[in-house]
Every structure is written in C-alpha cells, then in structure tokens.
Design a protein that fits this description.
Layout (H helix, E strand, L loop, with lengths): L1 H6 L5 E4 L8 H13 L2 E4 L2 H11 L30 E5 L8 H7 L9 E5 L4 H7 L2 H13 L5 E4 L5 H9 L3 E4 L10 H8 L4 E4 L2 H7 L4 E4 L4 H8 L21
Parallel strand pairs: 1-2, 3-4, 3-6, 4-5, 6-7, 7-8
Helix pairs in contact: 4-6, 4-10
Length: 252
Amino acid sequence: MLDVVDLLTVPLLVVFHTVLVAPTLRQRRILQRLLAVADAVVPMTETARQRLIDLYGADPARVTVIPHGAVDHGRAGLGIWRDGRPVVLTWGLLGPGEGIEWAIDAMPLLRDLDPRYIVLGRTHPKVLVTHGEKYRHSLQQRIAQVGVEDVVELDDRYLPISELVRLVAHADVVLLPYDSRERGTSGVLIEAVAAGRPVVSTVFPHAVELLGDGTGIVVSQRQPAAIADASGGRPTCPSARPARLPICTGHR
C-alpha cells in the first residue's frame, strides 16, 4: 500500500475506521507514513481525531471528522418480525470478540420478559477461512448449556437493506456486546441510533460519544448481569423520527 501511495500524483485522502491506542511498531509506522503524505485525513469520531493528533502527531489542520453515515430508515413498514414478544437484536459479521456469548448468558436473567434474542449475520469471511464455523458452533453449544434454545436465534443470513431496515425498526433493544474497548467505529451502532432504537452497548469510543448523553445505555465488557439489567429496562424513544438523536432512558 505504501508503495502505491508513493507513486500517487493526485491529492491523497485517508479515511480512518479505527485508530488504535496501542498499535504494533509496524502498525504505527504505516499509519504515521500515511499521515505524513496525506493531503487530508478523515476520522469518523472525535475520539479518533484526538488520537491521531495526540498519539501519532497528525497535523490538526488536516484532520476533519466526518461522522459515520447511515441508511435513511424513514418509516419502515410492519414486517414479519413481531409476534408479541420483545425483540433484542444484534447483527453484523460473527467472529471471536463480538461478545455474543455474554449476551447469551444474560438471557436467562430476562426470562420474565419472554424475549426473542436474534443474532443476525454470517461468519466473518476471514474467520471462516481460518477457523470455519467454530465460533458459531461454540455459540450453539452455549445456548444449549444455558438453556435458552427458545430465546436465542442464530440467523446466518445476509439480509437485503430493505429487510434489515424493517427488522431494526421493530427491535425493542439493539445490543452491541463487543469485547474490545479499541473498536473505533461501529456501523451497527449508528444504524440503530439513526433508526431511533434503544441501544445497549459495551464501552468503546463510538458508543461513549453517541450514547453518553442518554441516547442509550453503556455497560462494561463481559458482564451478563449488566447487559440483562440494561436490556430488561423499558427505554422509551419517540415513535416519530426526531430531528435530534432520540433520548432513551429506563431502569429494569
């Protein structure tokens, strides 16, 4: 990549999805080289912008935040997803580090609500090549061990946008149980907020920025009880799409 960059004769714009706090020496070298030759640098969060400046020496004048975009959810029509049970939804490519196991462990604590926990998404292609479906199989085993086969649904489809929008629109809670605190940006998070859904997320920079004002609830990593307590509340959001981010509050 750096060889290609060195051959460019046009302005270079670099967009950063994630900016690590503790990179390897090789990662730091590559990133700093890109910063040195870039005409403009675009992180997606204020946290990432500050990291580029403070940790990597980026020129503040060349760093501009452009927030992660989202689909225009508009007014999604009723779909096939509602059956009277509250829906907790997680979606995205599956693999170690997604924290789904902790969400599964939280489900027995929500038995009084009779929820459906839908985990939607295929296994990440890189994980599939290296480890096959080992992670998905481990989740299936965990579901059986915890005794929530009637609650948790592992759906390995990749839905078209129109159908995904309908599903998100009818989720009572969107759950992001990620293990990593380093995750810089989450498309799932911004889609959920744009759809006006209550969000429960573990702590990472993008979640803190978007949810810290009450738009959702942020919990610690690998804490099933905290996930259950936050997900089992009754966060309320405006039914119409607001001009500003919806404020969702609630207590179990």
